[in-house]
Each structure stands twice: as C-alpha cells, then as structure tokens.
Specification:
This protein is of the alpha/beta class. It contains 15 helices and twelve strands. Helix 3 runs parallel beside helix 8.
Length: about 300
C-alpha cells in the first residue's frame, strides 16, 4: 500500500461519514421537535448517559449543552446504577444514548426513570429497540454504513450521534436567544470571554509606565521607551498628555535625519491621544484600537493617567 492509497482510504471515510450525517436530516421528525421542547420546558438539568463510545460522545454533548445555556452533565450508567441516580431529580430530562438501543447498562435505568417521572429522550439507531420504546422521544441516529471496513468499530454512527447532539444544542441556543455575552460568561478563559467579560482595569499596565518630560531630548525619549517596553512614551506637558511611538521616531528620522536629535519630546508628541476609562470592556477598547489603527490606549480615571492598555 502506497501513500496515495492512504489518501484514498481517508477520502472514503470522509465520504461515508458525510453521507451518514446528511441522511440525518431526512430522519428528523416531530420526535426531534418534542425532545427540544421538553428540554426548553424542563426546570432541571439535562443528564446525558451512555456507555463506551456512546458515553464518550455523550460527554461532549453534555459539555456543549452546558456551555450554550442548557444546564447539563454526563452520568456514567454503571455509576448511575450504583448510587449516582441520587443526583437525578424529577425535574431533570434524561438523554440516553445507545446505538443499538439495547445497551444493558443503560436500559436497566429505565424503571427508575419511569418511577422518578423523568422525561426520557433517547438517541438510538433502532426505533424498535427497548430504549426507543421506553422513551418519551426518540432521536433516530441510524446509519446505513460504518466507515470501518469491518463494520465493527463505531465510526459513522458516533459521528451521527455527535451531529445530532449539536443539532439539539444549536436549536436550544437559537430558541433561547442565547447571546455572545452569555457564551462568554461560561468561557471566561477563552478569547471571547476576555473580550466581553474582562475590563481594561483587569489587563492594563500600571507599573513602570514610560513617563517622559516634554523637554526631554530624543535619546532620553528612546531610553524611556525601551525601559517601558510598550513601544511608546507618555509625554507630560503643560498642554496635557502626549504620546510618542517608536513609529513616530522612525518617521522623524526619515524626514529630518540627524537633526531629529536636536528636537524634544514635545516636538514629536501627539497631543490628546486616544484613551479609555478603566471600567471599559476589553471588547470596546479593542474596537476603538482597531478603528484608530493603534495598538496602545492610555487609561484615564477622572482625567488622571492610571495605566496603559495594549493588544
């Protein structure tokens, strides 16, 4: 087998799994709508449960739901049967995943769920299975063919399950009008969380600011900029605050040559530089920087310099 054969096999896998996902659209019916409505109407959490590969996919589905506005967690069926069912309240919706619909560890939870009056939603590839018949709503994840050439390893079926979970999560998101700000609240460590949740005061530099007197010569100006590490110097003058960037110095050198060294910081500075209050959202500060095509902002509190914010 040569390298081209490897590529051919990979393409076959993609084609098989892509068809499996595309076929799901034709399998959607009122059961899907009912399942989504049940989750929207529920007053508790969505508990996702599955064994083996279905369990692995279930963990991802639970994580996606939780991060997009639907409180959810994953429960291992074995642990559930040995005490974790105590976490399940009557207000919870139970989402059980089993491609065959006959996974013993999952099916044997049905009597408890029925007695506990939980809404049971299942994802299976067999509408006539024990789990499908016991559920209030059945989401059909049947595939015609696994990508595995032996038709043994779950491949197309797990991809279809994941796609169905994404379809549920996205439908719930749109139904709730889930906003970027809400997503950011659940992802404070991500780039979106930084932009929407954090404030300039959380990230601004306050120590070692490169403050330069207006009468400082260019060499002193460059020295201050180097020590500050911000690519700029902040000039204090009787006219107010000014800014000199390393770009300003380069342009002055190109225009005036060695004569630039006879100039002062006041000669090179730009007065009234862009600034923001410390309570400004990072998102808004970044938008202002993009608009003005700059990479630094002064941070002023009641007109007083308190820091510098940078990208």
């Amino acid at each position: 087998m040569n390298q081209q054969d490897y590529i051919t096999i990979a393409k076959q896998v993609f084609a098989t799994e892509a068809k499996a996902v595309a076929d799901l659209a034709e399998q959607l019916d009122e059961q899907f709508a009912g399942a989504v409505q049940a989750m929207l109407d529920g007053h508790g959490k969505v508990i996702v449960c599955g064994m083996g590969k279905s369990g692995i996919i279930g963990k991802k589905i639970a994580a996606t739901l939780a991060s997009t506005g639907t409180p959810s967690f994953f429960m291992h069926p074995g642990e559930a049967y040995h005490g974790d069912l105590g976490m399940v309240t009557a207000d919870d919706v139970f989402l059980a995943i089993s491609n065959s619909g006959e996974t013993e560890e999952v099916v044997k939870l049905v009597p408890f769920l029925r007695d506990n009056q939980n809404t049971l939603i299942c994802m299976t590839g067999n509408a006539n299975s024990s789990l499908a018949k016991a559920a209030h709503f059945h989401l059909n994840i049947a595939v015609h063919k696994e990508a595995c050439p032996l038709q043994l390893a779950p491949t197309s079926s797990t991809t279809a399950t994941l796609a169905m979970g994404d379809a549920v999560a996205v439908t719930l998101m749109e139904s709730r009008g889930f906003a970027p700000e809400e997503f950011a609240r659940f992802h404070p460590g991500g780039s979106l969380g930084r932009r929407l949740l954090r404030r300039v005061l959380d990230e601004m530099q306050t120590q070692g600011l490169p403050l330069i007197d207006a009468n400082a010569d260019v060499l002193s100006l460059i020295d201050g900029m180097s020590k500050g590490g911000l690519g700029m110097a902040i000039v204090q003058s009787i006219q107010g605050l000014g800014v000199v960037t390393d770009g300003d110095i380069r342009r002055a050198l190109e225009q005036h040559g060695e004569q630039v060294f006879s100039q002062t910081a006041a000669d090179l500075m730009s007065l009234n530089p862009a600034s923001v209050p410390p309570e400004t959202r990072v998102e808004d500060a970044l938008a202002l920087m993009e608009q003005k095509q700059i990479t630094r902002l002064l941070v002023l509190a009641e007109g007083e310099l308190v820091g510098v914010f940078k990208k």
